[in-house]
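Can't attach files on this board, so I'm pasting raw text. These are the components:
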Amino acid sequence: MKNRLRELRAAKEWSQSDLADKLDVSRQTVNAIETEKYDPSLPLAFKAARLFKLSIEEIFFDK
Amino acid sequence: MLYTAVMNSKTKWYCWSAVAGLATYVLLAFEMNRELDCWAKKDYATMFFFPLGIAVLVSAAINLKVTPPKVKKYTKRMLLGMVAYILGIDLANHIHALPSPYKYLLVLLPILPLIYICFTIIGYITELDEMLRKIYMEAMAFSGIATGFTCFTYLFFRDMGAPEFRAEWAYYMMWAYFLIGKFFSCRRYK
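---
Top answer:
Structure tokens for the assembled complex are below.
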């Protein structure tokens, strides 16, 4: 699954650690999601969507 | 100068805990050898692996001061459970010779702390970050399945004349498989 997490994070000028703190996960998890090695759970996807004030589909999408 | 730059108080604490752990390990290994004559009996597992557990306990107890609060809670519970387990085994070993029909219930002494330790581990994994939780779950699944199949396969080899292995090797093998599983799982996600 592809995502725009890195782009959205860069727009806010947050580091991976900042985003990890806001999502209550580890920095490694944020990195794994950004590099598309790990697909987040639904609750985490909702959390990210709420944080960026977007819908889940606007952040995470199929190829 | 370099020493002061590299050694902040946290690093110093980690170093001390590592030294204490290593010292405990060496002392216990010698003590086990002296008490049980492990080297002469070629009982290397008891001599090298048993002190490892105690050394990790000592090191973790010293590290408590610099452990993050989320992990500290579970480390304390693990230490408590392990101490109770060791005391339980020791007590069972000392009083099992009593002529009582209930002496077999003594086996519960180390089992109760083990149940407590299991709940502590489950609680720790449940509170982990979701990716780490997945890594741990995959490693544990791999470890359980691989240990089970290795033990089962060994039965055929034993029937064909392979040397006898003591049951405790299954425990060490389980941890070895866990580490292998964790390594591959980490590589996949990181």
